[in-house]
Write a structure and sequence with these properties.
The chain has 250 residues and is α+β, with helices and mostly antiparallel strands. It has 8 helices and 8 strands. The protein has helices spanning 75-93, 132-139, 147-154, 160-170, 196-202, 208-215, 219-229, 238-244; strands at residues 2-3, 10-11, 14-17, 20-23, 52-55, 62-65, 110-114, 142-146. The strands form 4 sheets. It has a two-stranded antiparallel ribbon with strand order 1-2. The protein has a two-stranded antiparallel ribbon with strand order 3-4. A two-stranded antiparallel sheet has the order 5-6.
C-alpha cells in the first residue's frame, strides 16, 4: 500500500464507491485528505515549494509569482502603471493641458469631458487599460479640462461647444501607426542526399555511420534515404558472408 503524502495514512489499492470498484494505485492522498472526485492530483501539502512568492519593487508587497511576473511588479502596480501611461498619452493627444485655463501640473486633476453626452459610448477612465488605438475615437468626442473648469462647464459658466469646435478645426487627427511588413527570404534547403545508384553501391561497401560522416549527416538519415529509394541494406551476418564469398553484392 502507498502512504498519503499529507497524513501518511495507508491508501488502499481499490475501493467500492457508488456500486463501482475504483482503483487508487495512482492516488497521492487518502480519501480523508482529498475526497473522491475532488481533483486529488492537486497538491495538499503545507510545505508546497512550487509556489514562488516575490516582493513587488514598487509597493514592496508580497505576491505570488507566476508565468507573467511583470518584471518584479505585482498585478496591481502593473495595472496602475499601464493605466497611467495610457492616460498620459491621451492627455498629450488632447493638447497636454486644460483647454480653458492651461492647467497641467497633475494628471489626476485633468478630465475628459464629453461635449455631446448623447454620443458618449463609455467613460475614458473606465477603459484606459485598453490599447490607445481603441479609445482614440472616444477621445475625439471630448475636450481636456481640469477639475475646476469641468465643474464650471456643468454649471453652465463655460461654453464647451465653442472650445470643442475650435479644437476640431485646429487639432491634427490621429493617424494609426502601421508597422511595416517583414518579408523573410525563403529557406532553401540544400539536399545532401546522393543519387540512388551511388547510395546503393555505398551501403554494400561501408556502414551507414561512415556514409553519414561522408555526407555530414547521421546514420539515421542514411537509413531514411534507403527507405525513400527502396534500397535493401546488408542484414545481420551479411558482411561476413561477403568476405567469405558466400553471397554476392546486388
Amino acid at each position: 500500500m502507498r502512504n498519503c503524502l499529507k497524513c501518511n495514512n495507508k491508501i488502499p489499492f481499490s475501493m467500492l464507491i457508488d456500486g463501482k470498484i475504483r482503483k487508487f494505485d495512482k492516488r497521492k492522498y487518502c480519501l480523508d485528505c482529498s475526497p473522491f472526485g475532488s481533483h486529488n492530483t492537486r497538491s495538499l501539502q503545507d510545505d508546497d515549494t512550487r509556489v514562488v512568492m516575490k516582493i513587488c519593487k514598487i509597493c514592496e508587497r508580497e505576491y505570488q509569482g507566476g508565468h507573467r511576473q511583470h518584471k518584479d511588479k505585482c498585478g496591481r502596480c502593473y495595472s496602475l502603471a499601464y493605466r497611467t501611461k495610457t492616460k498620459e498619452r491621451a492627455i498629450e493627444y488632447k493638447g497636454g493641458a486644460c483647454s480653458v485655463c492651461g492647467y497641467k501640473k497633475y494628471i489626476g486633476s485633468l478630465h475628459f469631458h464629453h461635449v455631446y453626452p448623447e454620443t458618449k459610448s463609455f467613460n475614458i477612465g473606465e477603459i484606459n487599460f485598453r490599447k490607445f488605438d481603441l479609445i482614440v475615437d472616444e477621445l475625439d468626442k471630448c475636450i481636456l479640462v481640469c477639475s475646476n473648469c469641468h465643474g464650471e462647464i456643468h454649471a453652465g459658466l463655460i461654453d464647451a461647444k465653442e472650445i470643442y469646435n475650435f479644437q476640431q478645426a485646429t487639432f491634427p487627427k490621429y493617424i494609426q501607426e502601421i508597422k511595416p511588413e517583414k518579408f523573410y527570404q525563403p529557406i532553401i534547403k540544400i539536399s545532401k542526399r546522393p543519387a540512388k545508384d551511388i547510395l546503393e553501391k555505398l551501403v554494400w561497401e561501408m556502414s551507414c555511420v561512415k556514409i553519414g560522416e561522408m555526407y555530414g549527416v547521421s546514420d539515421n538519415a542514411v537509413n531514411k534515404w534507403c527507405k525513400i529509394y527502396g534500397i535493401s541494406k546488408p542484414g545481420r551476418g551479411d558482411w561476413e558472408k561477403l568476405k567469405a564469398g558466400k553471397i554476392d553484392k546486388p
